[in-house]
Automatic annotation (TrEMBL):
Residues 331-354 are annotated as: Disordered. This is AI-2E family transporter. Residues 333-354 have a biased composition (Acidic residues). Keywords: Cell membrane, Membrane, Transmembrane, Transmembrane helix, Transport. Its main location: membrane. Belongs to the autoinducer-2 exporter (AI-2E) (TC 2.A.86) family. It is found in: Cell membrane. It is a multi-pass membrane protein. InterPro entries: AI-2E-like. The chain crosses the membrane at residues 30-47, 54-76, 135-160, 200-220, 226-254, 261-280, 292-325.
Amino acid sequence: MSWRLLVVVAAIALVFYATSRVQLLFIALFLALVFTAVLRPAVELFARVMPRPLATALALLGGVLVLLGMLTYVGVSVAGQWSKLSDQFGDGIDDIIDFLENGAPFTVTTDQINQWIENGRTWIEEHGGELASEAAAGAGSVVEILTALALATFCAVFFLTSGRQMWAWFLSQLPPAARESWRVAGGAGWYTFSGYTRGILIIAVSDGLLAFILLSIIGVPLAAPLAVLVLIGAFIPLVGAPAAMVIAMIVALAANGPIQAAVVGIGIALIGQFEGHVLQPLVMGKQVALHPVVIAVVVLGGTLTAGILGAVIAVPLVAVAWTVFSRLRTPESEVDPEDVEDPSETFDGEGDRA
């Protein structure tokens, strides 16, 4: 078993190394599969009444228009509330400073806050060159992102138009004895990946709408941009959406005071409960059969390995791998939890059998 584990670890390390060498290509192909999974139902629907290439073009155009419309709405809402928001933030910051000086369990004076600000300004002046270099690198990253999006769109067009023929061609290149296993593994993996992708999109949109309704009722400024932030955060399981809502709490605290911030916090908890107990089982079903503990470990591992990108892609990749493994393996027997002894009852404190 040790030798087998070493071989598995070496294979995983090789995959990670190869992926790191062609990271942009991997991201583009991953995004192409995401676009394919999301748009395929629309393409199949349009293909009933028009040629498939035209159906693919129409579905892609519709997705782009929806995305641009959402971004336009966010921009308009920010522009319309900016002047009012600046005044509210000024009053809110004054209230927070007053609370820290007089009402908080610990005292923070205005002089201390000004000193922190001055220290921050000094640090920026001292590290201006490094920040400029990072900004230039960020500009290069924007070019890479646009390149990845262009390649992903290009590949998605062919996946949507002739994906079945491409998969059949790949299977034809394999030895006949191995084709069935690859066919089963590919079908199971795509079923899980497409189900997860569409499911997380539905959950993200639902979280964004619920956040927008909650923030609008409470009267938190920039409800639309914050709702979009929640929508984006939902693509990081367990932690993304709550982290985005915490930002909304900070905005509510600065603009409207602690009571509204507390109400937003309660709303965060309610939305999280609704997602975990209603949306996840209803939308995902059995397509992503991963325990929450596994998801938490996978998200943390992905974050440590590849940052935010790793946190986003880790869960679907592990879900696909587990689905393929479960589909191909033939277990001899299952262990009943009732037959497993409690270690605390099996041995006493001195290590002797009780």
